[in-house]
Amino acid sequence: MDVNLIFRIAGIGILISVLNMVLKQAGKEEQAQMLTLAGVVVVLLMVIQLIARLFSDVRAVFQL
Amino acid sequence: MEIVRLAGIGLIAAVLALLLRAERPELAIQVSIAAGALLLLLTVGRLVEVLELLLSLVRRAGLDLFYLNTVLKIIGVGYLVGFAAQICRDAGERAVAEKLELAGKVAIMALALPILLAVVDAVTRILP
Known about the structure:
Chain A is mainly alpha-helical and about 60 residues long.
C-alpha cells in the first residue's frame, strides 16, 4: 500500500532532475532553483504525513 | 509473509536513494526518511501483539502496572529518538543527532527516576 509513496518520491526526484537539466540548458537558472525548492516542499508534505502517522501510532502504543 | 515485504521495501528504498544521491541529495534523504517511517509503522503493528502478551503476563503475576508502563514509555522514547537521530546522521548533521540523543537520554532518566525512588524506598524499609 504505502510502498507507492517511496516510488512517488523517487519519481518526483527523477522528474525534477530532468527538468532541472532542461531549464539549466535553456539558461533559466533561477527557475531551476525554484523548481528544486518546490520539489522539496511537495515531497516534504508527503513525508510529514507519514511521520505524523508514525508518531501518533508510537504514542498510542507506548502511552507516551 | 510480512518480513519479506519489509525486506523488499528496504531494498527498493536503498536502490532509489542511491539513484537520487548524486543528482538530488535532498530528495534521497526524503526517500530514506519515508522508507524508515514506513518500516517502523509496519513494525509497530506487530509490536502491539507482543506488548499485549507482556501485559497479560504482568496481570497474571499481579505486578504493578505502573512499572510496565514506565518501561514501555522508555522503549517508546528510545524508538522515536533513535529514528530521528539516525535520520539526522544520514543527512550529515552529526551534531544535531548527538544533541537529540542527549535529550532522549535525559528524558529516559526522568522517566526512570520513580523506579529508582521505589528501589530506595524498598531498601530503607528493609534496613532498620
